[in-house]
Every structure is written in C-alpha cells, then in structure tokens.
Amino acid sequence: MDRDAIDVLVVGGGNAALCAAIAARRAGRSVLVLEAAPKFYRGGNTRHTRNMRCAHDAATDFLTGPYTEDEFWDDLYRVTEGHTDEALARHMIALSKPMLNWITEQGVRFQPSLGGTLSLGRTNSFFLGGGRAMLNALYLTAEKLGVEVHYDSPVLDFDIEGGQCRSVTARIDGEMRTIRAKSVVAAAGGFEANIEWLKEHWGPPADNFLIRGTPYNRGDILKRLLEKGIAPVSDPTQCHAVAIDARAPKFDGGIITRLDCVVFGIVVNKNAQRFYDEGEDFWPKRYAIWGRLVAAQPDQIAYIIFDAHSLELFMPSLYPPVTAETIARLAEKLELSSEALTATVNRFNASVREGTFDHTVFDDCRTEGLDPPKSHWARRLEQPPYYAYPVRPGITFTYLGTKVDKQARMQLAGGGSAANLFAAGEIMAGNVLGRGYAAGIGMTIGSVFGRIAGEEAAKHAR
Amino acid sequence: MHASDNLAEADRLTTVCNSCRYCEGLCAVFPAMEMRRAFDDGDLNYLANLCHGCGACYVDCQFSPPHEFDVNVPKVLAQVRGDSYRAYAWPGFLQPLFDRNGMAISIVAALSVAIFILGFVLWHDPDVLFTDGGNFYRLMPHNVMAGIFLAVTAFTVVALTMGFRNFWRDIGANGLKGEDTPSLWQAIKDASSLRYLDGGGVGCYNEDERPTDRRRIYHHLTFYGFMLCFAATTAGSVYHYLLAMPAPYDWYQLPKLLGTLGGIGLIAGPIGLLVAKFKREPDMLDTARLGMDTGFILMLLLTGLSGMALMLLRVTPAMGILLALHLGVVFALFLSMPYSKFVHGLYRFGALTRYAIERRAGH
Predict the structure, then answer these.
(1) Tally of domains in chain A
(2) What is the pLDDT of residues A305-325, one digit of tens each?
C-alpha cells in the first residue's frame, strides 16, 4: 500500500478539521489529519472556546428556549452590519439545527450555560469541560474510526493546477513527504499569531498586541492558498480585538485574561486622558470594540479605573487589580501622571449626574458636559480603595479567508470552483462573518462547514 | 498568607479556575469554588477533600502543563489533601506517621503479625501452629479474639472521630441540624455511588485523555468488599453469641457467604486500584504520597488474600500461620486506620455533606 496516497487529507486540527475528518471517515474514506502544532496545543482556537450557537426549535436539557433560524440570521446580520453572504449564511444556519445532534453523536457533551453567562443560556450550547474537552472527544472519535493523525506536522506547499490540487508537501513527524490526496480540506485557522503579517496592516503598533490563542495560528496555509490562486474573501486588514489584561502572556492567555469591568469605571490612556464612552452599551455588545480603541492609543495601552463600589460586580480574572488608597497613589503605581489622572477623575466626578444605578438595564447614571461622555452606569470614583487594570489589545481571530461555496469548495481567483479543495472553520469564516462577532458563531462555522467539507471531500474522493 | 506552599498554590489555582469556569459541570469542586471569592486554608482543605481525583479537569484544561499557567488541579488538591490528613490526625504526636506512611504501615503490620504468631506459640506450644483440625479457637479463644478487636476498634473510632472533628472545624462547617437531613442523604448517595469519580459522565481519566470507568469499578469492589467482610464478621458475632452457633460455618451461612463475596471484592478491587495507580499519568499524582496510597491498598489486599487463604486452607497444617497472619493484618489495618489513607473516606464524606448543604442553601 502506498502510504502517501490517501482519499482525504485534512490540514489543521481544530473543531472544523476534526468534523471534516470524522464526516469523511464515516463516509468510508481513508483520512489523514496533519496538525502543525504539538499535541498539547492541538486544535488552535478551539481549545479556548466554550460554546456553539445553533438554531433549535425548542428548549432542551441545556438550552432555556427556542432560537429560530430567522432570529439567528437577524443576530448575524446585526453583528456583521450586513458584511455577510446571505445565501451561504442561511445555509449554515439551517444546517446548524441538526448539528447539535450530530456533534453529540461524535462524543461531544453539553451542559447548562456557565455561571456569569446567563445571557447566552437560550442561544448557545456550552461544552461540558470547555473547548479542549470538546476537542478531546472529537479526537477520540476520529481515532476510533481509524483517522490517522499526526502532530508537529506542518503542510508546507500545495501543488495546484487548474483548480486541482495534485499533491501536498508536508513535514510529517520530521520527514518531508509528498501526499497525493483525492480531496484536501484546509481547516488551518487564521493568521492572528503572525505578528509580521498583522504589522503589514497595523504597522509597529502590532508589536504591542497580545494574541489570545496559540502561537501556531500563523496563517501559513491561508497565505499559500491565496498565492496559488484561491479567491480571497473579507477584509485582509481586520482582526477581532478585545481589551485584555496587559500582564497576560504574549500568546495563549485565553479567556481568563479578559476584563469585564469597563462599564463600571473610566478608561484612560497613558496620558491619563479618557478617550471613549465607557457606558455606551451593554458590555457583551461593546466588549469587542475596545481592542481597536486601545490599539489606537499611544503605546497601545490603557487603564480601567474603578473604585470599591464596583469590585464585586463583574467576573474575577487572572491578575489582581492594582490597588491604592488614593487616585494619586494609584497613578504612581501605574506610572501615570498623578496630576493628570487626578484631574481626569475630578472632572469626571464633577460631571456625574445623580441617578439610580442598575447595571442590568440602561440606567440614568450619566455624565453631563463631559467629552467623551459616559452615557450609562456613571458613578463617581470616590470610595477607596481605588483599583486599576492595565489593558492591551488582545487579538482573537482574523477575518481574511478563502472564498467558498455552499459545498465548502474553494473558489478560484480567476473564477470558477476548485475541483478538490475545500475549506472549513476560521480559514473561511469571513464568508459569513465579514465583521464583528457573536458568541459561539466561530464554532458553528467550524462544525457546520467542517461537516460539509468532509462530506463533499468524501464524495469527490469516491 | 497560607500555612504551606501547597495551600498557596491551591489558592492561585482558585483564581485561575474562578475566572474560567469551563469545568463547572465536571464535579462538585468547581461549583464550590464559584461560591467564594477569597479562600482561607479551611476553604482550600474543603475543596481538596471534595476532589475525587478523577482527572477530567486536567485533560480538559487549556492551561494544564506544559502551559505556562501550569494549572494542575488534581495534583495540587491531592497534595493539599495529603497534608490535611496529617494535620487532622489525633492525637497530635502521631501525626508524623503520615510523613513516611508506607513505611509506618508496613512496620505496624509486620509487628502485629509477629505478635500474633508469638502469642500463639507462647500461649500453647509451637506445634499448635501446625496442627490441622480447622478450629480457630484452639489457637485463640473466641472471647480473647473478640476482646482484642473490640479494644482496637474502640481506639480507632475515638481517633477517627477526633480527626473528623478537626476537619469539620477547619473547613468552617456548623453542626448538623434537622433541616440538613436531605443534604446528608444526598451526600450518602453521592459517596456510595462515587458520583464525582465519573469525569462528568464518561469515566475518570487515568493514563491519558481517554476516559475509562475502571477506577470507579475497582473502588466499588474494594469498598463494598470491605463492607461485606465487615458484615460477615458482625454476622459471625450474632451467630456466636445470640444464636449460640460457633464457627466454622457452611458456605451458605451468612458469615461465610458474605465473607466470600467480600473477600473476592477485597482482592480484585485493590489489585485493580494498584494497577491503575501505577499506570496513572505521573503528572496528576502526588508522588510524594505514593507510599500512603499504595500502603493502604496493600493492607486491604492483604486482608482479602489472607482471609480467603484462611478459609480455603482452614483444615490444613497452614491454618495456624494463616490465622496469625490474617488476625495480624486485620489488627494492623484497624490500628492504623486513623493514620492511613482510610481517612480519605471520612473527610470526603464530610466535604460532600458540606457541599450538599451549601447547594441547598441556594447558592
């Protein structure tokens, strides 16, 4: 038997890759999975996820109510501000319905929404044990089905001619091999961990970005495919950026470095000046703009300042806040100008109008005559001790991808479809998610298009 | 400040876990963590004894080693748990028995067996060890046997009670009230089914990220085997004193029936647990306490083996030695209970009770 000949080659090792591998294997094809990362870091961003957004007709053991396809579409349209492909998106949403059952059949287990995430209890299905548990279950199923998996095995090149991938060069367990696969599924993620690539569009500030996932999301596969004539989709300059604790490691800090306290205080830059309305909207709807806002500040750093009133109103995070008895002392600890921070806080405090504080609704606590204003949840910073979290942009994922059709088949830059190249997951997420984000939608894209890609790749490999 | 490095590390982990929460559906430990924002030593000891060591959170955690956050909940809680056994032991001057526990248990066991052999020999003449005939009470009168074991049991019960009191106070729990009865019942159900050794539903994780339910099955065999043997002994006393039916018994009579079933469990269970222990991913183990873990399992295995051997070879010349061996092992098992891994069951049951109460209180 020729060990370099295979029916379906899956490039990548996350949710989309494994769904594709399992679907193709269940269709009776031989399947090879090449994951560039070592085993512990397998699965890219999937290891940091926790839920999946699927349409469903009725409440279940783990979901508190129905979530119709139309409502899902409305949410997607809203968060992307129309930067989506309606036909493709509605196709995905329709297939998200049977996905909950299918993924359960692959060994993935669910639980009720986690503490602190009640707002997602109706729409999102939470993985028992989180994303890495979900991945472990998929790998276990794939192995039982006879899928061959290699770690530390990056794909280096594709031999593509006339939309047909003839072979793939990869370093498998340290050995250079040329794999001839009847079908190839690329599910190798975005380029968020590739600082050089980010700098092409963001310039030197990208050096100060923190990457929330593994260092292995380098976009090498995406880059190679685009070079070889695959049509791109979505904005090459954009990435999903949130404000995370500046003390987080450069890579893979994951969920525990996030901070949910912007709405409870004020946010200042390194000059101790405010720069945006902290109370513009509810945090779940606004958290994703703060990465970009901080990226636009000098040295890409900012500080969330709040007082003792708010300390226990939000989820705890990994690093303790910087603490001081006075604003001036807090500024010293943050290495900010004491005078400037004191002046900013005094100005803010003086402009706060009395109201009834309620962080669960749009309350009437706001500033008057302040620029920028704080429209809601504005309370004077007056109760010591005072607290601060330093924040930097934390990059979650990138939007640039390979253009696909409803069969997850890659489209060619010169027009037409690739014969045997398919894409799933973040590498093609930009087709339906051209902008913004809605919790759990990355996993929906991964699972649904992963399954489609696997089934279509299997069909082609017959 | 915490009393030990292990407690300080456990405190660090609570900060990580409480800001993540992905594991909250796996077992009782993480929901109990979420009920708190600050953790004193008692809180951490409570969590440590609530943990069954199923390992699910280790294989599910995106931050477990080799990640730089180094989140290893099963190992750190095992270390804190081991430290807590020592700290709660009564009387205090015997706490160092936990330091080299495998060695301590071995010495107690060897001495006990030797004393029984010597006792038989001195009491009678040396030949009595090797005469066959199958009558235990020729070697040691029933009343003497019962008296010795009643005494050691009484001491053990007192020592275990005092240890449990230390634990219960340390974790800050209150006295049980009438309204806590459903919680107590819940804890009994959770403990007797080893509910939280199931890795959140698929089985625990031992050598890698593939779940199995073997450890739970082996633990059930061991625990229920032990309880059946205990029941057999109790039934024997009832037969002897109340029904005036002294041993030996036929296979279908309760002492024999229960003892045989229990003995099988007490052999198969500990062997399975030992194998699982040595196959377990070393990174999840408190390797410093391997002696304590294996010492206790070996004592249970020896109890089962010597008991079954005694039953099978009762009418051979080996009976005298086997009786001394079995009585010596059982004596050592009971005597060392407050200073062995046996205490894990008590403290875990206490922690489960506390957890059931907290849950019912509507957190």
Answers:
(1) 2
(2) 999 999 989 888 999 999 999
